[in-house]
Structures are given as structure tokens and as C-alpha cells.
Design goal:
Layout: H1 5-21, E1 34-38, E2 46-50, E3 53-57, H2 60-63
Antiparallel strand pairs: 1-2, 2-3
Length: about 80
């Protein structure tokens, strides 16, 4: 699947943002070791993976319906 120009810019932005936040004395991230994928036209999230970390980016319109869930916490629903 081909990435459109906007997806590539988003991948570059996320890569440089993460790279600048890491302490250089501890670790480094290289562009060669990163990968970004768009699953499909119907699934509008972007998966960006580097080494063992994966970042899923959702458009803001999709996160409006998810209120009360803080970042990094999964909303779990139990069914009886």
C-alpha cells in the first residue's frame, strides 16, 4: 500500500519529535530502523513502529467519543 504525502510528513514529524525527546547519552533512534503503515482507507489510524515500540495515531474526531480515558489507559468493558 502506498503512503500519501501527508502520511509521510506525519511519519517524519513523529520520528523527529521522539528523537529529540530521547537523551542521546542513553539511546539513539535511526531513521532506517523505523516503519510506518496505514492499514486501509476504512481504518483511519496510522501505526508507527520503531524498535519494540509502536505508536497508534488516531484523528482527533475519533477520540471525541472516548472521554474519561486518560492517555496510556485502555477502556475495558466487562460483559456478563
Amino acid at each position: 500500500m502506498r503512503l500519501i504525502k501527508l502520511d509521510v510528513k506525519l511519519q517524519n514529524t513523529l520520528f523527529w519529535d521522539i528523537k529529540t525527546r530521547l537523551t542521546r547519552s542513553l539511546t539513539t533512534i535511526e531513521w532506517i530502523d523505523t516503519n510506518a503503515r496505514v492499514y486501509s482507507k476504512d481504518t483511519i489510524d496510522l501505526l508507527y513502529s520503531t524498535y519494540d515500540y509502536e505508536f497508534r495515531i488516531l484523528p482527533k474526531i475519533c477520540t471525541i467519543s472516548i472521554k474519561g480515558i486518560s492517555a496510556g489507559v485502555l477502556g475495558m468493558e466487562f460483559q456478563d
